[in-house]
Amino acid sequence: MFHVEHVSENENESEKMILNIQILMILISDEYLYQNEKKIEI
């Protein structure tokens, strides 16, 4: 029983990690696009 709970806990952690990584990727790509737009304007 404990083992099963432990596994599901790990799955939750990895799902959070994946979500965090996706959010980071979006933020980074937005920042990258913004920097490129500024360069184009200049």
Please outline the helices and strands.
Elements: H1 2-41
Explain what the structure shows.
The structure is a single chain. The mean pLDDT is 82. The longest helix is centred in the middle third of the chain and has 40 residues, at 2-41. This protein is an all-alpha fold and 42 residues long. The protein contains 1 helix and no strands.
How many helices in DSSP terms?
1
The N- and C-terminal alpha carbons lie at a distance of 62 Å
Overall strand count? 0
Q: Radius of gyration over alpha carbons?
A: 18 Å
Mean pLDDT: 82
Principal-axes geometry comes out as rod-shaped
How much helix, percentage-wise, in residues? over 70%
Percent of residues in β-strands? under 5%
Low-confidence stretches: none
Find the structural class using helix and strand composition: mainly alpha
Summarize the structure.
With 42 residues, the protein is an all-alpha fold. Helix content is 95%, strand content 0%. The longest helix has 40 residues.
Keywords:
single chain; 1 helix; 42 residues; mainly alpha; 0% strand
